Structure formats: structure tokens, C-alpha cells
Amino acid sequence: MIYSYLLYYIYMPFFKKQKEQTAAGEDRLIFRVFGATLGSVALFFIEVLQILVIAAVIIIVTRYFLVKPFLVLGASMEPNFYNNEYLIIDELSYRLRDISRGEVVVFAPPTSPSQFYIKRVIGLPGETVSIKDGTITISNTEYPNGFTLKEDYIEEYTHGREEIILGEDEYYVLGDNRDESLDSRSFGSIKENTIVGRAWVRGFPLDRLGFIASPNYSYIY
Known about the structure:
The chain starts with a helix and ends with a strand. It contains three helices and 13 strands, in the order αββαβββββββαββββ. Helices cover 33% and strands 28% of the residues. A hairpin with a 5-residue loop joins strand 11 (195-204) and strand 12. By secondary structure, it is an alpha+beta fold. Strands 1, 2, 3, 4, 9, 10, 11 and 12 form an eight-stranded antiparallel sheet that branches. Strands 8-5-6-7-13 form a five-stranded antiparallel sheet, with no helix packed on it. The radius of gyration is 25 Å and the shape is elongated.
């Protein structure tokens, strides 16, 4: 909502200029039809209506195409995201660029398409992801022999044993709290078209307010 009002005040001078160009003619017409007193009242309501319509358009565009609020539920992303934290999800970036490893995304899981989960991207399209003895190994065209992913942001052992080859539009996601996360180890890879966007800003609690950064990975070859 904050971003919507900011956009409104950025573009408002343009709309005001356009309105001033036609205001004189409109005023004369309204006063001829309604008279001086009712004409003034009518002008007031017309201006309020214009402001509301412009604000509504900006809010709708922002809400459905640029950013979206998201409430973290559960402990699957601890210690980096806690229950009831309020996040702003960036829906625009992935329309302009590819998803990067380590980014935290919100998506609809294949087992519950009406719900939304938050997880971290581990495997990218075309890669092979292997989990064995708590170690995640990733192979791709650049590193055909694979590399081990060193994750400094987690505290838990990565349980499970599997190997999965990702399709050209598939991603492998895991929760940071590996013992408490329902993720790709359970429901498999996720499709790109199920991803809503990336976690961009933490809005609440206020003592954790700020932009959400992606990790700088250390790869072990």
C-alpha cells in the first residue's frame, strides 16, 4: 500500500496538469447547468472522484503486477524468516530476468496449488541436484563433475537421499529449517509458472525491517 501511494504522488502532477488544461471549460459548463452553489459542490465531488479513480488504478496495478504482501506461517524458514513476519514480494523482477540460486521465493506447491509456500531456490533448470549424507551436490553444464553447496545460512542437517534432474522450467527448493520444512524433498521440483515472486522486503517486525539479500555461496569442487 505504501508503494501505491508513492506512485500516486509521483504521477499526480501529470494528471493535475492535464486537468488544468480543461478545467476552465468544464467549470463554465458545470456552473451553467447547476448554478454557482451547486456547481461548486459538484466540482468538489468530481475532483474527489478523479483522485479516487487514479489512486485505485495505481493500487490495482501495483498490487497485482508489481508487489504483493505475504505473511510467513510456520517455522520452515527459520532462523532467517520467522512465523508471522510480514514480507513484500517482488513480482516484477522475474518478468525481466532469470531466477537466481539462493533467492527466497513464494510459489504454489504442486500438491496444494491453492496455497503459497516460501522456500529458497537451490537447483536451477537443467541441473542435477543430489542429496547424500547431509551434503547437497549440484551438476550442470558449467560444472559437469558437480560442486558441493556450502550454506552458511542454515543450522540444520539436510536429511534425505535423492538425485533429481531438473527440466528446463523446473526449480529445486528447500526450507532453511530442514527438519521442519515440506519442500522439494517431499513434493519434487516446482514449475517456473507457479512462482509468484521473490521475497524483497521484510516489513514486520520493525526491528527486522529491511531488504532481503541473497547469499554469496561458497562452492566446494
